[in-house]
Amino acid sequence: MQPLISVIIPTYNRRVKVVRAVNSLLQQTYHPIEIIVVDDGSSDGTVSHLQKSFGKRLKLLALPHSGHPNRARNAGINAATGDYIAFLDSDDCYLPEKLEKQIRFLQRHPRYDLVYCDMKMVNDTGDLIADSWFEDRDRMRQGNIFKFNLFLFDGNNSGFEIYLNWLLIPKWILNDIGGLSIEFNFLEDWEFTLRLSARYSIGCIKKSLVVAERRAGDNYANQYSQSYISDPARYAVPILQALKQKQLQQHSELLQKAIRHYYLLSIKRQFACGTVRKGCSYWLRLFQTSPDFVLLINSIPTAIKGILQRYLR
Which of 162-171, 192-201, 215-224, 240-249 shows the lowest mean pLDDT across its residues? Predict the structure, then answer.
């Protein structure tokens, strides 16, 4: 018997875009048993538009607006009847062979518990921006990839994120780790895949099977992206601290090392931006959390250089 796949699409006020996402699932060479669209209280007629366009071909859930995609995704997980779960953002789409390539990969490689793929990016007119998320697909690792997921911006260019749209996951794993967190409004994909990669073996297909639309001003994460680049500790450290205290206590030492890593990144980038006070505050937090005095001493030149650059301009 062939494994059954449920695909979950959370959406909010994207009555046109979500139709494209649904059509990409109807065109799959390996048909999902169900397409679950979870509407987060849209005010643009999304629900009625989907009912009229697709009828019983969709399982449509309408929720009160929460503003958190993971609430919608968790509702979809609870409603899903498939053996495997895949996620699709409502402004993105799958290439036709996405589900088939992933399910066949897991059938051929039973040592992996779940699998991810690459993604290509287009602009809002459909023109190709990049054929891959990765500058080099050799960075795509498989097996025990927790450390690669944990240390982003690591200087060796080996750390990487995995996004929900890329994954095909057995439903029992989602139940086992308690679904997706609603504690964080940004980097929620990262928090989830850290929990996955800490416990399960993850395979990869080094091919773009997802198409993501990237544009200014209409993406859930855009409001955070600029401050994330200049201040990664602001978003990464609370997630790491929560994981250290709860789900991933067995990785406490490694998570503490990652916390120091993101503090150092923010120190460097805050000084580069000229926000000396904030850079100094992160240095104090690093001092409070780190017993590694060599690390602290080595970070002093960065702080001094940043201060001098700020006041010698």
Answer: 215-224
Dist. CA 275–CA 137, nearest whole Å = 35
| pLDDT score of 190 | 95
Q: Does residue 143 surpass a pLDDT of 70? A: yes
Can you tell me the distance from the alpha carbon of 120 to that of 118, in angstroms, rounded to the nearest whole number?
7
Q: How confident is the model at residue 312 (pLDDT cuts 50, 70, 90)?
A: very low
The C-alpha angle with vertex 171 and arms to 169 and 175, in degrees rounded to 5, equals: 115
- What angle do helix axes 222-230 and 252-272 make, rounded to 10 degrees? 90
List all residues 6 or more positions away from 3 whose beta carbon is below 8 Å from its beta carbon: 82, 83, 84, 103, 107
Go through the domains of the chain in sequence order and give each one's CATH number.
5-220 (3.90.550.10), 225-311 (no CATH)
DSSP β-bridge partners for residue 6: 34, 85
Question: To which residue do tokens 């927790």 refer?
Answer: 146
Q: Which residue, chain included where needed, has tokens 């997980």?
A: 77
Calculate the average pLDDT of the chain: 88
Beta strands 84-87; 5-11: pairing state: parallel
Mind listing the pLDDT tens digit for each residue in 165-211? 999 999 999 999 999 999 988 899 999 999 999 999 999 999 999 99
Is 200:143 a contact under the CB 8 Å cutoff?
no
- 46: Cβ–Cβ under 8 A, 6 or more apart, which residues? 11, 12, 13, 14, 15, 18, 39
Residue with tokens 């697709």: 54
Q: Rounded to an integer, what distance in angstroms lies between the CA atom of residue 199 and that of residue 209?
A: 25
